[in-house]
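new request in #modeling-help
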Amino acid sequence: MKTKDNFERFIENELRNSSIQYDSNKFKNQVLNNLPQPKSYRNIIIYFSGILSCLIFSLIIDVKIIKQFISETYLFINQSVYPSFETIIFISFIVFVLFIIPRLEFKYSVS
Amino acid sequence: MPQSDLSLIYKVVFNDDHESFGILIDKYQSDIHGLFFKLTNGDVDLINDLSQEVFIKVYRHLKGFKATAKFSTWLYKISINVFYDYQKSLSRNYQNENEVSVFDVESIDNKIDINNALKILSDKERIAILLHYEKGFTHKEIHKIMRLPLGTIKSLILRGKLKLKKFYKYEDER
């Protein structure tokens, strides 16, 4: 390995002696406050808002219709009876809210 | 007992542990501030902004860190990218003055300290010199950090060294 000459040692000493020592809790707290929220915390918020919007949605349209969606889904799973178009839209919406949005959010906000 | 970088990274990635990330900040904030201090000629607000950007980027991309390299190498790579981005944004607004002549530097401050001497180097030379002589990185590591060919790194360091030698009017020892 190549050994350092006198000038290189001189530069090394000058640079290392001029290094600043920076130790600030203020800086650390600033960075920590600006970090994205923990994943689990964000997911709880998203799931909660998704479920809340489903509830509001079910109050706006009728509870009977929701019952119909549930029974049609049950029939589809157990007896392969094809559900109505509205049921498909409703189930797709639920799946979208519960699975896809958190994934998109996590993909674009953290990594 | 101090925890290793890898165990801290593990906690941050898998548990979203901000406390562990705080320990990483404590450990490296001096180095990053010191690097930006020398690259930006000591503008305190700018140094804080750039350093903050570095740590936030580190947090966001920590999942992608491969333990094949040292964490410090990866950290400096991000820091240099942040500095390049800052320079790009600067050159969009202003005519960039990369090279400062020896006379300009001396007229600013007669005291020839290393921070003044570094001003005569181009940004790339300055980064390579700082990483090699101050931080102790090898040529290979600097090649990974700066993403430039190994030969270019060697010539940047050599050119920077010669410029500094001329600046200090340093004569080889007898």
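bot summary: The interface with chain A takes residues 16, 18, 21-22, 25-26, 29-30, 33-34, 37-38, 48, 51-52, 55-56, 59-61, 63-64, 113-115, 117, 129-130, 133-134, 161, 164-165, 170, 172-173 of chain B (CB under 8 Å).
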